[in-house]
Specification:
alpha/beta; Rossmann fold; seven-stranded mixed β-sheet; about 30% helix
């Protein structure tokens, strides 16, 4: 067994769920690069090598040839832990998969509960000297570029955001492997599914914080999926929002939707979900981290309402006393990419860079395993067709920084 060390808080480590996920293999050339904030996706590989980022003019990344099975890994999360039932757990699953195959490696989990006042970055500074590989899930860690440059012999795996310099500019650093996902792709699938499955004709989203672009990507993708279903699939569905909980994105734009304002406020998540269900919504797509626990709780107190989960297969979170309220879960396979990056460090093939991953690279999908969803037999093939159209570039869901919008995007 691999040695597992926990600090700051002690967590119960659960076995990684084995999920059957409906994904398309990498097809290449599917998305219009001009529509993305970073226009490149990694080349398909054998699962053990991080693709070349194509950068030049920087110092070479550290030589990892002696890392081997003695690799010391730390995963630093903020504000939620590695067992949040969502994105952090997804990322940590990749660490566990790596440890299983490298029994000499060790992993430490550090939780920085304060997500403001630069505490997440200070947590990295406090731990960086003691480890070989530093994994940081969430946009709270965007400012690690300076730390990575100060520690060129360390490896950094940054998830859900690209590194930024002190002026806030996106940069590429040779010892940072950074991954962003096309949440708008999975959000689109969730929107189509909700539009096809709703009985009341009203659906909604609940996000954590609109200042986090991946949350806005999920919202925009979902709304676009609903509009697509209305235009092409015979649906007549309304999107519900409560103005008092509308989001304001990083550009200061009011983007509507419904936002808790926190990833750790389950009570407010439950209150907001209850208000939306009571207003007639029967399906809510939630991407609010720990706040989503309240959404599941609100649904379980009602009849004939559902939740679409996000991050990992959340079927169990929405099941109690033999009742499940989970329609499906839409996921991004962060853990797979964490494991790939750790393997690359271990075998000496690590190459830093900023990667944008979506359906076309097998990094985004939805749960369709029997017993883990409640989608109808009629909906499943429609979702597969929509997935293919996204891969082929016929449909390009909008995101926080695109020129398109949920009511005006390629494919609508």
């Amino acid at each position: 067994m691999s040695k597992l060390i926990m600090s700051r808080k002690i967590f119960t480590v659960a076995l990684v769920l084995v999920m059957s996920v409906s994904l398309l293999a990498a097809c290449g050339g599917g998305t219009d690069a001009s529509d993305e904030p970073v226009a490149r996706t990694p080349a398909a590989d054998d699962g053990g090598t991080v693709a070349d980022d194509g950068s030049d003019g920087q110092d070479a990344a550290p030589d990892p040839s002696d890392a081997g099975d003695g690799l010391r890994v730390v995963i630093i999360t903020s504000p939620n832990s590695i067992n949040d039932g969502a994105f952090n757990e997804n990322c940590y699953g990749g660490v566990l998969a790596f440890l299983e195959k490298h029994p000499g490696a060790t992993a430490t989990a550090v939780q920085e509960e304060q997500s403001d006042n630069n505490r997440p970055i200070l947590a990295v500074e406090e731990n960086v000297a003691d480890y070989d590989a530093i994994i940081t899930p969430s946009s709270s860690f965007a400012a690690i570029a300076r730390i990575a440059e100060d520690y060129p012999d360390k490896y950094f795996i940054l998830l859900d955001v690209f590194p930024r310099d002190d002026e806030g500019n996106t940069v590429e650093v040779d010892n940072i492997y950074a991954v962003q996902f096309k949440e708008q792709d999975r959000g689109f699938i969730a929107g189509v599914a909700a539009a096809l499955e709703t009985k009341t004709g009203k659906v909604a989203t609940i996000g954590g914080m609109a200042s986090v672009p991946p949350n806005v990507n999920d919202q925009f993708g979902f709304e676009a999926g609903v509009h697509y279903a209305n235009a092409h699939l015979g649906a007549e569905v309304e999107l519900l929002s409560i103005p008092a909980y509308a989001g304001t994105d990083v550009n200061g734009n009011n983007i509507g939707g419904n936002y808790v304002g926190s990833f750790g406020d389950a009570d407010l998540g439950k209150l907001l979900a209850g208000a939306l269900y009571d207003a007639g919504a029967d399906i809510i797509f939630t991407f609010a981290g720990g706040s989503s626990n309240g959404v599941f709780a609100a649904a379980l107190e009602r009849d004939d309402v559902y939740v679409i989960g996000a991050g990992v297969d959340q079927y169990d979170l929405g099941t109690a006393d033999g009742k499940s309220v989970v329609l499906t879960s839409v996921i991004k396979l962060a853990g797979v990419n964490v494991e790939r990056a750790l393997n690359a460090i271990s075998d000496g093939t690590f190459e830093g860079g900023n990667m944008l991953l979506g359906i076309e690279t097998g990094s985004v999908g939805y749960v369709s395993a029997p017993g883990r969803h409640q989608l109808s037999a009629a909906t499943l093939p429609v979702l597969e067709n929509v997935l293919a159209l996204i891969v082929d570039g016929v449909i390009v869901p909008p995101h926080n920084f695109s020129d398109s919008t949920p009511t005006d995007f390629p494919g609508l």
